[in-house]
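Quick entry, no commentary yet.
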Amino acid sequence: MKNLIVRTLTGAGFVVGVVVALLLNKYCFGLLMILLMTAMMVEFFRMTMRGEYWFSQILSILAAIVLFVLTFLYRGFDFPGRLVVLAIIPVFVIMINSLYVKDKTDFGKFANLYTALLYIAVPVSLMNLAVFSPTGEYSGTLLLSLFIIVWVSDIGGYVFGMSIGQKYGRKLFPEVSPKKSWAGFWGGLFLAVAAGAVLHYTNMLHYPLLHCLVLSLLMNIFGVYGDLIESQWKRYYAVKDSGTFMPGHGGFLDRLDSALLAIPVGIIYLLVVNIL
């Protein structure tokens, strides 16, 4: 019960911070995303590289920030889209830097530098597409709605999984995450789709109902995969949580693992059906 209370209070504080930043203005959004992205990459490197090659880690984080900022400027400030390709230059610097590392026995660890960019930086940078219109006008409502779907799905998975899944039914991926259950999956799916309908009828999602339901369905499925992918990383490196900054949750990567897959998939869906 104590852990549940701590988890709830920490989660509520995090949600309030995200909501306020998204609804205030584009600068608060940009600052929030850069801070969260940096924190998640630091946690990922702490888990996978454990203090080694810190200069290369800094280069990777700088490359991520450059990618986000260029995408931010392109969508919100009429920055020439062709110049977004400049984000690849810091990645080349990381590659060149790897040649000057004297100890080549752990060269495989450098793959984590690129993995963090693909796993964390690219999804966060894609969120710029959800807050800026093609004409550069800012609105955090859509991205907030996508976060709400992820949060509701997580809550449904946790509540149904703990209350039903731990006692009855089959496990979802026992070799990766022993606590994940099919009961939690279906509970999260039901609440996610319900959230999509509510967001439609409250005009937070200005799309036809069918698209809102399909969007919620896809985000729930990929959100579960996002959670499992991070669980697999933690299991491989034998760590319980990615960090300790959020009591009851672990680190920022633990809190946003679902969103890293779910929100980009939601954005891609809206782009593919040509309604974003």
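second:
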Amino acid sequence: MGKYDYLKSGTDVRGIAVEHEGKPVELTDEAVYDIAAAFVAFVAEKTGKQAEQLTITVGHDSRISAERIAASVLRAIQNCGARALYFDLASTPAMFMSTVELGAQGAIQITASHHPYFRNGLKFFTREGGAEGSDIVRILADAAAKNYDDGKNGSVENYDFMPRYAEILRDIIKQGVNAADYEHPLKGKKIIVDAGNGVGGFYAGEVLAPLGADTEGSQFLEPDGMFPNHIPNPENEEAMRSICEATVRHHADLGIIFDTDVDRGGAVDANGEELNKNNLLAIAAYIAAGGEKGKTIVTDSITSDGFKQFIEEDMGCIHHRFVRGYKNVINEAIRLNREGIDTPLAGETAGHIAFRENYFLDDGAYLITRIVIEMMLLSQQGKTLNSIIENMRQPQEAAELRMDILKPDFKAYGQAVIDSVEAYAAAHEGWLLADDSREGVRVNFAGAEDDGWFVLRLSVHDPVLPLNVESNVEGGVKNIVLHLYEALKDFEGLELSAFEPYLG
């Protein structure tokens, strides 16, 4: 294993950035410097330019380690001879947009998304989009070998890019709503934002309010890298409960919540009900399709049967389930478009949703911007966002179980388990193998006591088999879990304690 290989996390670099419970810092100044310098060399090779011809933008979220890490990143870029533009506090999507708006050849965002305050990381962008996993392998290997030239003298400049990014979003709303009062299309609407003390507070003050929206009641807008109020994560129950309660308490028409670096967003309707996961994806798909039939929508593997039915029967489009991970679904959508398959949206239930019209960038602020436009257009017809999905079947129950794999070669063992379950399903009456499973194994059940499905798959990074289960009947999740337990109980390399509540 290379010196920095342990810092790879999918398509990002992540590690401990503040000593915590005796665990040492992994993102040291040396590591950060080496990795940033290797990225400069990577961009130079990718673009065919000399380092002196490159502009690399740098930003960070609100974490307490951000400024320390930024100092090492900027020093590396300067010493490699490139020009660094330092944005200070910025969202992850804004960093990519800097390659479009400013012509930067590369961008580095310092963030660890929704992870705890003591962790941090680096995300890398070029004009073609975010780095691939293979790019991270290459950058880390070059960093470890110090395969870069840092004997030069570039420059560092401060640059406030977020106002321009907010202006882009405001213009999109103005054009999309096209109200009589063009400059104030949100006048008369109350929209509140929960930024979770991350970067997303700008959306209330710099996007919504100038357009006429009443944002009073917005909360946790001030950046605070200790995240004192709740985890900034639309998937977190406490976070969602907080914005749901605030939306009702302040009689808002819409509640918005962002994760730390704003690549994900969630919404809450006027009744305090979440528009999240399958529902958020369905609304985004409806918007992206624009009323046209035959378009393909790419999602991760654990979207519900009701969602598939909505896409294919209500919208007349095609649902393409794929492998979990936001880069996986985005890359699949890009591939389909290149093959001539009209695919305007890629998204996963965790909240990463990317529109083709927005460079297939997983941008929570852009997603919310499109939702705000749709809300305004629907309100002109006396309708709400809920009217889009009012006929979409919702599951009665849902659960996720995680099984640790105890064998050293966890990927091979996990795949053997999945293959065994697939064979078990084929041999047992009532187990219906899904015909669109592109990850792990998906099995449907149609009985009166177990109407629903499960997906068993390998975790993207960890020695874990996640199991997602949904049922359309009360008690159905338990019955499906018990069915699966019979197929798994003899695997000694699986830790099955997650089944205990269902067995009792």
